[in-house]
């Protein structure tokens, strides 16, 4: 692995905040070039693209940095707490069943997309989808299915079950990251055009609009000029919750691994329960929901969700670091499989959204709850409105639950497709 120009995380973090500052400064311009630019390209997409360009140019690299780990383990749970303080569970329940329908549509799209992609690529490049025994490509692709339906724990389960050649596993991780991040960029680009997309889908967005209005009205009623005391209390609530989430998340995952055979067995459907990241996200979200029933809810008026938004944007920048555009063409055959695979996932989502008239919000978040998991589904949801963050988290949790089972079915279908 070639060393990037900058490996000091303090400097890398400075570069990421420089990117974020530049984007937010230029996107605030009401006239001129930048106004026209951001009317086409969403600011959040640029928060993802600029770090990706730095990584592609060899200036920084996720492989030599701990910033994504820091952002996903500390800032993400803190953001979840701050952005769920003003949650309205009844209003979220009123969003109806379309969120779940779109989530499971995304899951089905991944399950059938893998084998179809193998069949298509085998027509013009049979060697790309070949391999024997533990070198068989379908075994490696099963780990991507685990990642795209569930998350890291489900991906590890697929590697354990199908025992893909470890020396070639890095190539599969590359496809996972490259294709998933390209798709996330497409979804973020669509957010800026969500109103137009919803009109094309003939979607009923009234429940989402009502939730936004309700939260906005509550925020307007309690809005105040935040003081140092307010900021310290919000940081106390957020990071004490992070500590609680890590403490109990570690304890629960270790207890289940040591005492429940189905959890400790990486081949089991329940192996995701041994992931401390899973429990950390769940507990942080539950703490935030619990605080929404107390006077802590009023800290939304001091900017709780805005502070959470700062943490989310830092997370977005560290996700962008993972995308090295220069590696896209390193293995064009496998990248082609990944792109066809994600296109089938996207096509099925669009078809079902059109049929049931689901808003673009449900399409985007349902997809990211599968492909991106708990690290990026809240990012996409929050871009629509901070009050919708918890929808992304809840759907991502479903992804962990169905991840191993869905990936197993996908893997068996890919094995059949590779032998046709």
Overview of this structure, please?
This protein has 19 helices and no strands. The protein has helices at residues 9-27, 32-40, 43-56, 67-83, 89-93, 98-124, 137-149, 152-162, 166-191, 194-201, 206-222, 228-259, 261-264, 276-291, 304-321, 332-356, 360-371, 377-384, 389-418. Helix 9 runs antiparallel to helix 17. The longest helix is centred in the middle third of the chain and has 32 residues, at 228-259. It is globular and about 65 Å long.
Shape: globular
Radius of gyration: 21 Å
Order of helices and strands: HHHHHHHHHHHHHHHHHHH
Instruction: Identify low-pLDDT runs.
Output: none
Q: Largest beta sheet, briefly?
A: none
pLDDT average, as an integer? Answer: 86
Secondary structure category:
mainly alpha
Helix/strand layout:
Layout: H1 9-27, H2 32-40, H3 43-56, H4 67-83, H5 89-93, H6 98-124, H7 137-149, H8 152-162, H9 166-191, H10 194-201, H11 206-222, H12 228-259, H13 261-264, H14 276-291, H15 304-321, H16 332-356, H17 360-371, H18 377-384, H19 389-418
Helix pairs in contact: 1-3, 1-15, 3-15, 4-12, 4-14, 4-15, 6-7, 6-16, 6-17, 6-19, 7-8, 7-9, 7-19, 8-19, 9-16, 9-17, 12-14, 14-19, 16-17, 17-18, 17-19, 18-19
Keywords:
single chain, 420 residues, mainly alpha, 19 helices, 74% helix, globular
Summed up:
The chain is 74% helix and 0% strand. It has 19 helices and no strands. The two termini are 37 Å apart.
């Amino acid at each position: 692995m070639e060393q990037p120009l900058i490996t000091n995380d303090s400097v890398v973090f400075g570069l990421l905040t420089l990117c974020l500052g530049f984007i937010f400064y230029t996107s605030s311009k009401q006239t001129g070039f930048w106004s026209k630019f951001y009317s086409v390209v969403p600011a959040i997409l640029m928060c993802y693209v600029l770090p990706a360009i730095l990584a592609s140019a060899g200036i920084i690299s996720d492989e030599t940095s701990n910033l994504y780990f820091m952002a996903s383990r500390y800032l993400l749970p803190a953001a979840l707490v701050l952005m769920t303080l003003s949650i309205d569970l009844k209003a979220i329940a009123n969003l109806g069943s379309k969120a779940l329908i779109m989530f499971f549509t995304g899951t089905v799209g991944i399950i059938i997309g893998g084998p179809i992609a193998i069949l298509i690529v085998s027509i013009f490049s049979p060697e790309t989808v070949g391999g024997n025994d533990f070198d068989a490509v379908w075994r490696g692709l099963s780990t991507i299915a685990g990642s795209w339906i569930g998350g890291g724990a489900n991906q590890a389960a697929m590697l354990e079950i199908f025992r893909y050649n470890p020396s070639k596993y890095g190539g599969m991780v590359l496809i996972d990251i490259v294709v998933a991040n390209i798709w996330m960029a497409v979804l973020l680009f669509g957010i800026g055009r969500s109103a137009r997309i919803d009109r094309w889908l003939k979607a009923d967005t009234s429940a989402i609009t009502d939730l936004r209005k309700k939260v906005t009205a509550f925020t307007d009623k309690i809005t105040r000029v935040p003081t140092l005391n307010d900021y310290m209390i919000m940081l106390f609530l957020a990071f004490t919750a992070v500590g609680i989430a890590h403490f109990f998340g570690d304890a629960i995952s270790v207890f289940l691994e040591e005492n429940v055979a189905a959890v400790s067995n990486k081949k089991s459907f329940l192996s995701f329960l041994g992931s401390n990241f899973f429990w950390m996200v769940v507990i942080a979200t539950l703490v935030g929901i619990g605080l929404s029933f107390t006077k802590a809810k009023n800290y939304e008026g001091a900017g709780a969700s805005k502070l959470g938004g700062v943490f989310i944007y830092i997370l977005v920048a560290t996700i962008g670091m993972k995308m090295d555009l220069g590696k896209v063409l390193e293995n064009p055959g496998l990248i082609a499989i990944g792109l066809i695979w994600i296109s089938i996932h996207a096509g099925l989502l669009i078809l079902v959204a059109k049929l049931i008239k689901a808003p673009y919000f449900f399409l985007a978040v349902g997809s990211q709850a599968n492909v991106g998991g708990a690290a990026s589904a809240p990012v996409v949801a929050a871009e629509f409105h901070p009050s919708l963050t918890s929808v992304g988290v809840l759907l991502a949790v479903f992804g962990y639950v169905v991840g191993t089972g869905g990936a197993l079915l996908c893997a068996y279908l890919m094995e059949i497709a590779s032998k046709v």
